[in-house]
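Late entry, evening session. Most of the bench is empty. Finally got around to the prediction I had been postponing all week. Sequence below, unchanged from the version circulated by S.P.
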Amino acid sequence: MPHRPRRRRTALAVLAGTALLAAAPTPVTATAADRTPSCRAPKNAALAKQVTRDLRTALAERSGTVSVALYDDRTRLSCTLDGGTRYDSASIVKVLMMEATLRRAAGWGRPLTAWERRNLRPMIRSSDNAAASRLWNDLGRPYLAATLNRAGTTRTTLGPYGYWGLTRTTANDQLRLLGALTGPRSFLGATARSFGLQLMSEVRRDQRWGVSAGMPRGLRAHLKNGWLPRATHGWRIHSIGAFTGGGRTYRIAVLSHDNPSMKYGVRTVERVAQAVHRALNKGRAIARTATPDSEISERSDGSVPPDAPELPYPYE
């Protein structure tokens, strides 16, 4: 169910008078393939060149605004495409809330409480918005901001007035947050990382589209998605995930908006994911194919109430 912040409604009403003037639908005119990905692999220039080419092909003739960031621990391949572009986070901000909760428990030298577990599990597994709102309010903005800083994010700002789904973030910053769950220098301990990854591997079936498409057998997907339509910039379709197993770990973040439908955005994200998995796992059998049309709902993730104003701070 969508959360409905109770605080500062008066301030929102003042903003709405001007912000909603910009609420007319934005036409989808940009072509995602117009921009060139930047890939590097210190010891495998051929791989970097291939992935650059494959990402361009995956985005050929795809409209909308798309950002990609990825990192493979084995080959040290890193790629970015407009990785600093900012988007409304929708439900992927729940990974930040999870990490902040895990960090707080470790910092206080205690295990997670029963209340924290009761909210973390549905928030990640089924994208429960009521649980997310409870954790957001319990953690507080200062602690969430401190967690962002600890993760090394540079362009993520928390959503205003309790609208956590309007947190602004980038693909590069989402890759850093995923690194807190997989990286050797993580600010989270081994137990916390294991618990967080476990939850992200248990996302319910109808929410497992996105960067898991094209993954090979023998790997495990740890996933979180966001899918949110708004009057401006159309559908936000985001998918972030870490892939572990077989002696390797890699992370992928794909963020997008200006999608005319949820299905269109999912298709774009999955084209990117398939290109990455194929390049990093040559010759391996595929475990997860593209999501069937029948499993794409065209319903919002509910991370922002439908009556929330179009807030007037600009995209960058």
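Two things to note before I forget:
Residues 262-280 form the longest helix (19 residues).
Residues 35-253+268-295 form a domain with the Beta-lactamase fold (CATH 3.40.710.10).
Will write this up properly tomorrow.
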